UniProtKB/TrEMBL annotation:
It comes from Tetragonisca angustula. This is Protein Wnt. GO terms for molecular function: cytokine activity; frizzled binding. Belongs to the Wnt family. Gene3D superfamilies: 3.30.2460.20. It is found in: Secreted, Extracellular space, Extracellular matrix. Keywords: Developmental protein, Disulfide bond, Extracellular matrix, Glycoprotein, Lipoprotein, Secreted, Signal, Wnt signaling pathway. It comes from the Eukaryota. GO terms for cellular component: extracellular space. GO terms for biological process: canonical Wnt signaling pathway; cell fate commitment; cell morphogenesis; developmental growth involved in morphogenesis; muscle organ development; neuron differentiation. Residues 1-20 form the signal peptide. Transmembrane segments: none annotated. Pfam families: wnt.
């Protein structure tokens, strides 16, 4: 009996770090891709290839993670969980499978796609360059045709592809290689959800490319135009994913064990752009080590708003304190010939509410 217990204990000790390393490896992505590389030294596959052979790409990936994190913090600035990168919070969030987890994964995958694609356009990577589409105008092939692009294509006059377009194919692929590869062979619900949300994040860029054109011709007559494909601004990507977050669908494993279905038959099945999750979120009102909630005590709130930033919701009904603070701002700015602007500093009184 005792022997068996010891064996079980040894097995647990052996299994946990291995099974856990996948999640921990993936979870570190939000904070530090370099750490993934340290941990994947023993692993094979595409992630390890990038770590070993493509250091400059890895740098761009790290930048992309930053871009995603910053946008997450902007989009969640007024929410109870504000996308803080404090490890004790974010690590826990990423170990779960809530709507917040889904958003963080999606915006990170999008950030990586964005940064790598941008690096190609700027010529910062030897592995890739701009997108040089050569087909004549009005002949977009099916693969590259998206609604946004159609909307922004010139409707009249002669034009052709040219210039330096954003090579989103490369960014998309590298984001997938790095972020999805370690999970490809797994089919548990958390993995399926993660891969789906990563992809939704990348699609929020790839399928929302627009077209920008430049006129050529005598004195701007625009007799010829060259056009190229351009990524959306990352703020637009964030806004779009935030919308998906607000309408995220809860899913459960389906019977075949390799896919998911929505919980409850009345919900519209999620498409490729929707965010999904499999666990309900905590309310994030009080600090909780288990869930990664830091609570909302001390957070600033808006006493006149009925929304998530309003004191009632943000403070979870606990009430709030009001202080008047003096804040320095620039004022009475004057334009001086030439070319300088001088301002005074003024003190203004401002009411600040903080959650109890
Ligand atoms: C985010 O929330 C935490 C705790 O709830 C707080 O300490 C931190 O200052 C907040 N960050 C921002 C940028 O508001
Ligand atoms: C507070 O909320 C109101 C109503 O939503 C809004 O008009 C106002 O600009 C907000 N104030 C701040 C400081 O965000």
């Amino acid at each position: 009996m005792e022997m068996r217990l010891v064996l079980v204990a040894i097995c647990l000790l052996l299994v946990t770090p291995i099974a856990g390393s996948f999640w921990t490896v993936g979870n570190q992505v939000v904070m530090d891709p370099m750490l993934i590389c340290k941990k994947t030294r023993r692993l094979k596959g595409k992630t390890a290839d990038i770590c070993r052979k493509e250091p400059s790409l890895l740098k761009e990936i790290a930048k992309g993670v930053q871009v995603g994190t910053k946008e997450c913090q902007y989009q969640f600035r007024n929410r109870r969980w504000n996308c803080t990168t404090m490890r004790r919070s974010l690590r826990k969030i990423l170990l779960r499978d809530t709507r917040e987890t889904g958003f963080v994964n999606a915006i990170t995958a999008a950030g990586v796609t964005y940064a790598v694609t941008r690096a190609c356009t700027m010529g910062h990577l030897v592995e890739c360059s701009c997108d040089k589409m050569t087909s004549k105008g009005n002949r977009l092939d099916k693969l590259t045709r998206t609604v946004e692009m159609e909307k922004s294509l010139p409707t009249e006059g002669d034009w052709e592809w040219g210039g330096c377009g954003d090579n989103v194919k490369f960014g998309f692929k590298k984001s997938r290689d790095f972020m999805d590869a370690p999970y490809r062979k797994r089919s548990d619900i958390k993995t399926l959800v993660k891969l789906h949300n990563n992809n939704a994040g990348r699609l929020a860029i790839r399928d929302y490319m627009s077209t920008e054109c430049k006129c050529h011709g005598l004195s701007g007559s625009c007799t010829v135009r060259t056009c190229w494909r351009k990524m959306p601004a990352f703020r637009d990507v964030g806004n779009r994913l935030k919308e998906s977050f607000d309408g995220a669908a809860k899913v459960i494993p389906s019977n075949d064990g390799h896919s998911f279905i929505t919980e409850g038959p009345t919900i519209k099945p999620p498409d490729r752009f929707d965010l999904i999750y499999s666990e309900d979120s905590p309310d994030f009102c009080k600090p909780n080590r288990k869930t990664g909630s830091l609570g909302t005590q001390g957070r600033r709130c808006n006493s006149t708003s009925q929304g998530v930033d309003g004191c009632e919701l943000l403070c979870c009904g606990r009430g709030y304190d009001t202080r008047v603070v003096k804040e320095k701002i620039s004022c009475e700015c004057r334009f001086r010939w030439c070319c300088e602007v001088t301002c005074n500093t003024c003190l203004v009184k401002k009411t600040v509410n903080t959650c109890r």
